[in-house]
């Protein structure tokens, strides 16, 4: 080895080259060596020992290996031409297919021919270029010395990112490759003998042995009864449909109002009359009805009846003490109290027209209906709420026909919206002897109210020989909304009234609140006692409708009323824990006002939600 080459090789490379020279001289194969990745202790920058391989051809057996030709030994690489600073080896493609030569070769496990390098070949290799830090990179023995690695590069790359071997789940389970599907033989039952196992494998089908005639009969009976039930149900529906009474004859329109202008509603010839009163209308109601445009008005094609607080006009202190309130445009001289639903209405004269004419001035009735005085000592208060009561008593009434009102009820505790009818003439006497038809009554309390809140609407008939014997409990009904409330949208409330039936429903005849078939007189339906007591006196009770038809007292002309009441002492709001007053109390109105912090927050500030909003009113009479 020349001195020049010796100076370019490291100590380990020189030692390795000398060992190979000895091997070549002896004609034996080099020993299998391993090298460590750790750097030498003497020089940390030195590369690990090299194990270069190149291609040699061998002669016949027993001959020494033939080194590369002289021309290949003269091929050198200068350090400047060495790629990436690694040792470059000239490739001598001598007999790429050694089998053609016929000599013996040594094969690497990857399939590449391998033979020990010669000293001349090692001398032709250029030392590595040092890095900027002075340490050389490790040579690629597989690529730079013209040999394949022990494994292909793709296989080694896949092993780098391969999943780890699966761990055993228990101490008894063995580790299996994740890609290998475990197949185990199903254990054989030791509880069954071979004979029993063979019997179980035989599927018995007794129904194929013979057909039972009773099975066919049972099928015929089952399907026959199903068909019969369907047909019977259809027949019953048909006859029930035929039994539903309908209006006979023609219906002639009496009134149709869509509230396009306020003049047509409240004007001189308007269709609705505003009743002004603060007596409670016989029910002990806590509102006063006014002509104020704040309480009843027309807007955007709708009629509004809106309750407001009296304290907005006179202040809260004046409600309870030291104030005299005189209501404007009181109508008591016109109505004469005939629209009151009082229990003592039997004292009212018979056959008095509800249209009303000016009569002798009644000071006591006028004072109660048109004025009030607040006194903290006595507990008397001025009606704390103002509302409106509109009627068609002067414009339209019907005797047998149909009424249809599309409206949305208000929201708020203790509000009492109503669409109802009273007789024009008290032919049979005062209330309830001449009757009352309630098309719709509701409560403004929410659906959680214990006694039917705003998700219920109710229809009823009031009738009887006097107020104490009102038989409304026999002719009333309701319809409820299971998912929602009637104050959320508009609904159509209808009355169909004939001498043979009275039907009240909401939106559809299927949703009927009340359906009365007049098959016998109301006197017989009421089953009233033959004797009544009035204080210390007793009197025989006579049939007051004896001169009327079987539909009496509902065989006369009735007019329509729209109103929103507040509270009352007649029992419409039953006494309960959440109710702030008692019906029998003399100061019930004052108790209601003092509890305003409880009920006033339930009244919406939007007038559309706090009002009875009416879309249209239609009335037809049988003709």
UniProtKB/TrEMBL annotation:
Residues 1-153 are annotated as: Disordered. Gene3D superfamilies: 2.60.120.200. It comes from Ephemerocybe angulata. InterPro entries: Beta-glucanase-like, ConA-like_dom_sf, Glycosyl_Hydrlase_16. Residues 299-623 form the GH16 domain. It comes from the Eukaryota. PANTHER family: GLYCOSIDE HYDROLASE FAMILY 16 PROTEIN (PTHR10963:SF55), GLYCOSYL HYDROLASE-RELATED (PTHR10963). This is Concanavalin A-like lectin/glucanase domain-containing protein. Pfam families: Glyco_hydro_16.
């Amino acid at each position: 080895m020349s001195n020049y080459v010796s100076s370019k090789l490291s100590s380990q490379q020189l030692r390795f080259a000398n060992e190979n020279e000895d091997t070549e001289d002896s004609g034996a194969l080099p020993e299998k060596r391993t090298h460590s990745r750790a750097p030498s202790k003497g020089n940390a920058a030195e590369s690990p020992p090299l194990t270069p391989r190149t291609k040699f051809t061998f002669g016949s057996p027993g001959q020494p290996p033939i080194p590369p030709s002289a021309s290949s030994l003269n091929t050198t690489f200068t350090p400047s031409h060495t790629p990436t600073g690694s040792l470059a080896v000239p490739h001598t493609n001598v007999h790429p297919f050694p089998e053609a030569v016929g000599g013996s070769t040594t094969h690497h496990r990857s399939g590449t021919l391998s033979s020990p390098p010669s000293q001349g070949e090692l001398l032709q290799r250029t030392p590595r270029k040092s890095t900027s830090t002075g340490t050389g990179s490790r040579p690629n023995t597989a690529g730079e010395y013209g040999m394949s690695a022990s494994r292909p590069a793709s296989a080694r790359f896949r092993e780098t990112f391969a999943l780890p071997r699966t761990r055993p789940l228990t101490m008894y389970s063995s580790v299996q490759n994740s890609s290998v599907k475990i197949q185990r033989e199903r254990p054989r039952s030791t509880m069954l003998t071979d004979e029993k196992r063979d019997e179980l494998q035989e599927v018995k089908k007794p129904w194929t042995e013979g057909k039972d005639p009773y099975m066919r009969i049972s099928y015929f009976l089952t399907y026959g009864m199903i068909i019969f039930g369907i047909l019977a149900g259809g027949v019953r529906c048909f006859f029930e449909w035929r039994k539903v009474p309908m209006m006979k004859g023609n219906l002639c329109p009496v009134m149709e109002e869509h509230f396009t202008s306020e003049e047509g509603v409240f004007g001189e010839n308007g269709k609705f009359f505003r009743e002004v009163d603060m007596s409670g209308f016989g029910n002990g109601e806590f509102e006063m009805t006014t002509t104020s445009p704040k309480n009843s008005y027309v807007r955007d094609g709708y009629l509004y009846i809106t309750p407001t607080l009296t304290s907005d006009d006179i202040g809260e202190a004046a409600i309870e003490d030291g104030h005299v309130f005189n209501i404007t445009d009181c109508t008591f001289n016109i109505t004469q109290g005939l629209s009151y639903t009082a229990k003592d209405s039997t004292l009212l004269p018979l056959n008095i027209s509800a249209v009303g004419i000016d009569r002798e001035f009644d000071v006591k009735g006028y004072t109660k209906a048109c004025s009030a005085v607040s006194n903290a000592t006595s507990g008397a208060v001025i009606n704390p709420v103002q509302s409106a009561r509109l009627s068609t008593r002067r414009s339209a009434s019907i005797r047998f026909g149909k009424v249809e009102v599309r409206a949305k009820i208000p929201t708020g505790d203790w509000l009492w919206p109503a669409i109802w009818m009273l007789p024009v003439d008290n032919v049979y006497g005062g209330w309830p002897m001449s009757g009352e038809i309630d098309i719709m009554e509701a409560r403004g309390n929410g659906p959680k109210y214990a006694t039917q809140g705003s998700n219920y609407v109710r229809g009823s008939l009031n009738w009887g020989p006097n107020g104490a014997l009102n038989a409304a409990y026999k002719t009333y009904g309701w319809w409820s909304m299971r998912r929602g409330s009637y104050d959320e949208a508009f609904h159509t409330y209808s009355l169909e009234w004939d001498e043979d039936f009275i039907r009240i429903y909401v939106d559809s005849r299927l949703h009927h609140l009340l359906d009365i078939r007049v098959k016998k007189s109301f006197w017989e339906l009421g089953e009233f006692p033959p004797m009544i007591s009035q204080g210390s006196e007793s009197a025989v009770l006579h049939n007051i409708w004896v001169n009327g038809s079987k539909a009496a007292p509902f065989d006369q002309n009735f007019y329509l009323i729209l109103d929103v009441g507040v509270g009352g002492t007649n029992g419409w709001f039953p006494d309960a824990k959440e109710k702030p007053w008692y019906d029998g109390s003399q100061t019930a109105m004052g108790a209601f006002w003092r509890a305003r912090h409880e009920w006033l927050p339930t009244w919406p500030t939007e007038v559309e939600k706090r009002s009875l909003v009416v879309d249209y009113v239609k009335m037809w009479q049988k003709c």
